[in-house]
Amino acid sequence: MTASSTTPTAPRQRAPARELFGWAMFDFANQSYTLLIITVVFGDLFTRVIVGDAPDYRIGNLLWSLALAASYLLAVVCAPVAGAIMDYDASKKRFLFASYVVTVLATAALYCVAPGLAWLGVVLLIVSNLAYSLGESFIASFLPGLGPPEDLGKISGFGWALGYIGGMCSAIFVLLVLGEVSAENFERIRWVGPWAAVFFLLAAIPTFLWVRERARPRPRPPGQGALRLGLGRVAQTLTHLRSHPDLALLLVSVFFSMSGISIIITYAFIYGAQVIGWDGEVRTLMFVLVQITAALGALGFGFVQDRLGALRTYRITLWMWLAAIALIYLTPEIASQAQTRFGLDWEAQHVFLVVGCVAGLSLGACQSSTRTLVGLFAPRSRAAELFGFWGLATKLAGAFGLLAIGLVQGLLGLHSAILLCLLLFAAALLGARGVIEQRGRARAEAHDRGRAPW
Hints:
Blueprint (H helix, E strand, L loop, with lengths): L16 H24 L1 H10 L6 H32 L2 H17 L9 H23 L8 H30 L7 H4 L2 H12 L1 H6 L15 H15 L4 H32 L3 H29 L1 H33 L5 H30 L5 H30 L1 H4 L2 H13 L4 H12 L6
Helix pairs in contact: 1-6, 1-8, 1-11, 2-3, 3-5, 3-10, 3-15, 4-5, 4-8, 5-15, 6-8, 6-12, 6-14, 11-14, 11-15, 11-17, 12-13, 12-14, 13-14, 13-17
């Protein structure tokens, strides 16, 4: 099948502002799940209270890693096949809506997870994170149709930045009303699941009102169901990825960078509680600082992407991550040396706040630049499918990273295990060396013009 028979050839124009806002609002909405369930609150609640194997919480950490890794592995299987079906049937919004509903319901049900019911927590985490992960790929697949290539960095960066603002808004209720993560406060803090679900439910409504389904459905071959069609198109794409080396190499690099990022997102606040031993006030301040710096990183580097190129921006963020991981590991030593050598009254938790700002800037910018690059390298007729492969790379990375950190921290403890991220980001830099942005963009544009078969 040639590109000319399936691919739109009209020049890309920027979507109306209302549609761009509606698209970005899904990032705003789903950040409540990422932040409250995965990063800040429920992970800490699950490991320290629901499982509660003090003093080092290794079993709780391992169960947490296994649950999330299982959900990512399921997403690896489902995302590309669903993406291929969505492209062919022009059904992106229907698939996105289904993932949204399942995420909301499973997240609300986390209220039922209590000490002694860790198995229920594992099941609900798998279901909710699978649905969330698929939705993340589905919403990203709309990006190539929202504007010309020179605008995609700003559009993607705007979405990520609005996402971090959404995370901060969703957490205000938790910080002011639900309080701290502790066994004594369990009856209040367990409402974090329902609150995250309600926030996601309401904030994503503009997405379904204003984002358009631009593709037109194509008739399926006789006797071919959706699953068979999706599997066939994925097999076809895997065969032809060799003719798109920049996209293939990018996905390899994304695998390693997202392995590291998934570890940081999942364990940053667990690390603060178990290794740094921070106070509740510092934990709250860290949350605010990371959200602000991540939003600034996503928005600011969105403009940098369109000026320097998304690939160069991505490489810069990887170097920033290497510095951040080294500082995370050295935080206790930096505080100790500041006190003994220079007489400075620095506490490790306060040094960790500064390190968190470096990580926050890297977080927003790195995730946004990878999404932009896939949008630039993806032909429009295969956008959902190729963003499914982007989802495959990121979720397989999440599974790998969390399994690896879960096992390593079980042997060495969480403090030493964090150094695994240094190796992962270094591997991502090596993987990105062979990517040539202009060549990848040219191949996608040739396919859209019908000059390159798939």
